[in-house]
Amino acid sequence: MTLTVVDIDTVNAPPDTIGEFGSVVIGVTDSGAAPAGSAAQAWLDHASFTITSGQATDRRIVRVESIDDTIATLDDRLSRYPVAATVCDDVLRAHPANDTRQGLTIESLAYSTLQAGREFARWLHDQGPRVRHEQDDTVVLHQDGPDLEIRFNRPDRHNAFSNALRAGLIDGLRVALADDTIGAVTFTGSGPSFCSGGDLREFGLLTDPADAHLARTRYSPAILLAALGDRLGPALHARVHGAVLGSGLEMASFCGTVTAEPGAVFGLPELRLGLLPGAGGTVSVPRRIGRWRTAYLVLSGAQIDVDTAADWELIDGIESRAD
Fold first, then answer.
1. Going by C-beta distance under 8 Å and a sequence separation of 6 or more, which residues neighbour residue 61?
2. Is 290 helix (H, G, I), strand (E, B) or coil?
3. Taking 60 as the threshold, does the pLDDT of residue 20 lie above it?
4. How far apart, in whole angstroms, are the C-alpha atoms of residue 263 and residue 318?
5. Phi/psi of residue 271, each to 5°?
6. Which domains are seen in the chain, by residue range?
7. In three state form, how does the secondary structure of 257-284 look?
8. In this predicted model, what pLDDT tens digit does every residue of 106-165 receive, in sequence order?
9. Cα–Cα nearest to 3, from 29, 19, 20, 23
10. Is the pLDDT of residue 97 over 80?
């Protein structure tokens, strides 16, 4: 899969979207303001995302420190993970705006496809023995009247999202959904990070991709978070800090309100495993920042700070944690 770079400032004809699937398209513009011409607008819509060294105000455009360095990074990553990058781009484009379950199904089917692919197999081959995490109190619930706190409790591993933690989260979300007296839920984590993403030591334990798809879609924290968000709106509040990566960012983005500590960092690192976001991130993150900036996070592997996250509306505010 090749990388096509298009100068948005000079195009004079819209993209051909009728033919066969082509390369991943990255736009480049000198100004962060979207060019006004119809051809430029069509390319901004069509591109996976557009980069600029100016101040980006359009959610289809990402400001980077160096256009040349960013193109070089993207070219390198697409050459190493061409299948995962292309499948992720396809999934983000196929995302249905308002149908969470359909979006999660598309994501999971694509994730399972990549689990059976050579890029994930190559990553898995280089890892050590697979280890299943065992812990009874991975998630701690604390209720004070109508307020419920759901807290990840694996601080020694930055709350890496294991099967045991997943089960604890599902139990906590079911408690919240079953109790009509609960009017506010705070979703947070113990220790130095909210959640550093999936527990890499468990990746590969479930060897059948079809079984993995059924587990993701039938035993899904994302479905429960979306349902709780529909009920509570802004009163479903993720308070995040430290590493907010991979599945951590994906789950927090389902919440009606997300606030972060000043030192938090955000990213979607799954491509380096030959995978795409698999905890609902192709649904939840684009709803906050659009598919273009979501694609940038995945394809570039970049991490952003709280100021950028707030500017993109990935988070709703910056505040210190009260423990």
1. 27, 29, 32, 34, 44, 49, 50, 51, 52, 292
2. helix
3. no
4. 10
5. -60, -35
6. 3-80 (no CATH), 84-318 (3.90.226.10)
7. EEEECCCCEEECCHHHHCCCCCCCHHHH
8. 999 999 999 999 999 999 999 888 888 888 889 999 999 999 999 999 999 999 999 999
9. 23
10. no
**Type of residue at 235:** A
pLDDT of 323 over the 60 cut: no
pLDDT of residue 170 exceeding 60, the answer is: yes
Give the sheet arrangement for strand 265-267, strand by strand: 243-245, 265-267, 304-305
- Per-residue pLDDT for 55 more than 90? no
Nearest to 162 by CA among 198, 205, 115: 198
Count the residues in the chain.
323
- Specify the pLDDT at position 1: 60
Please give the order of strands across the beta sheet that includes 49-52: 3-7, 24-28, 49-52, 61-63
**Residue with token string 């070089």:** 72
Structure tokens at 261: 């500590």
> 43 Cβ partners below 8 Å, 6+ apart?
6, 8, 11, 14, 15, 25, 27, 50
